[in-house]
Specification:
13% of the residues lie in helices and 31% in strands. The protein has 267 residues and is α+β, with helices and mostly antiparallel strands. The chain has three domains: 3-117, 2-Layer Sandwich (Alpha-Beta Plaits); 124-201, Alpha-Beta Plaits (2-Layer Sandwich); 208-265, Alpha-Beta Plaits. The strands form six sheets. It has a four-stranded antiparallel sheet. Strands 3-4 form a two-stranded antiparallel ribbon. It has a two-stranded antiparallel sheet with strand order 7-10. A hairpin with a 2-residue loop joins strand 12 and strand 13 (238-241). The longest helix has 11 residues, at 9-19. The two termini are 20 Å apart.
Length: 267
């Protein structure tokens, strides 16, 4: 969903006036100078629909995500380099890439836009899943709480036809493997290691590529020094990129002082 709103210069002046603690008592002639500007930034965020599968946490190459549990969603930290691997890996699209844009000129005032950026998703497929009820404890089955398809649900002991003895009036997880998508939420939330999941996680889909302008490169080595996965090198005065290991983050292009590196969409 895309959102935008505008604010006139007068409204901005009033907000600054109300929040300022340094102005004199006489503010009738108050004004401020704000030059025309444009601002754009991509932000990755986790929505409340997070199912606590921790796939984003496990797949992040930068250790930039705090793991989720039954009480909190996953969290993107300041270590994030916007490689978008978490966006592609989330099985329920709970992680979004959002473009924040702001524009200001004196006649039109401030315009702010938030645009959701669509990204490809890698394949995640369940091959096999099973629950060992002999390991299952009386935890209240939190493993069933966040299942996005209802493939695992709480059932009382007398509803199971198994060879082991279960405690009466106790809830246990019941599997419907035809509904399972292999997200791993139940596995992550099980405290006793009672759930075994075999799944296939497909390769990343590259929606972006790094464009290199060798003619304007100044051989400053900032790209090489700041690449978090050592995928870019300066060899004999030219930038050499290893596309196989490059994670399509913003580190090298952000640090390039002359704009010789640019990350662009290729879809």
């Amino acid at each position: 969903m895309d959102v935008s709103f505008k604010k006139q210069k007068k409204a901005l002046e009033q907000e600054v006036l109300m929040k300022s603690v340094d102005l004199d008592d006489d503010v009738e002639d108050f004004s401020f100078d704000l030059e025309q500007f444009e601002f754009e930034e991509n932000v990755i965020s986790v929505s409340p629909k997070c199912i606590r599968c921790n796939l984003c946490y496990n797949e992040c190459p930068m250790d930039a995500i705090e793991s989720s549990n039954a009480f909190r969603i996953a969290k993107i930290t300041e270590k994030c380099v916007k490689c978008e691997i978490c966006v592609q890996s989330c099985p329920v699209s709970a992680i979004k890439m959002v473009k924040n844009m702001a524009f200001y000129n004196e006649d039109e005032g401030l315009e702010y836009r938030v645009i959701n950026i669509s990204r490809s998703h890698r394949t995640i497929r369940m091959n096999n899943i099973s629950v060992d009820l002999s390991k299952c404890g009386t935890c209240g089955v939190p493993c069933t709480e966040f299942c996005p398809t209802g493939a695992i649900s709480p059932q009382f002991a007398d509803e199971f036809d198994v060879d082991i003895e279960l405690e009466e009036d106790t809830l246990y997880p019941k599997l419907n493997d035809k509904l399972c998508i292999g997200c791993g939420s139940c596995v992550n939330l099980c405290e006793f290691g009672a759930i075994d999941l075999d799944r296939t996680i497909g390769p990343l889909v590259h929606d972006k590529q790094l464009e290199i302008n060798q003619d304007i490169c100044v051989n400053c080595y900032l790209c090489e020094e700041n690449c978090p996965v050592d995928s870019i090198k300066l060899v004999n005065g030219e930038v050499v990129l290893d596309n196989e290991t490059c994670i399509r983050c913003e580190s090298c292009s952000y640090h390039c002082p002359v704009g010789a590196l640019k990350l662009v969409d290729i879809r």
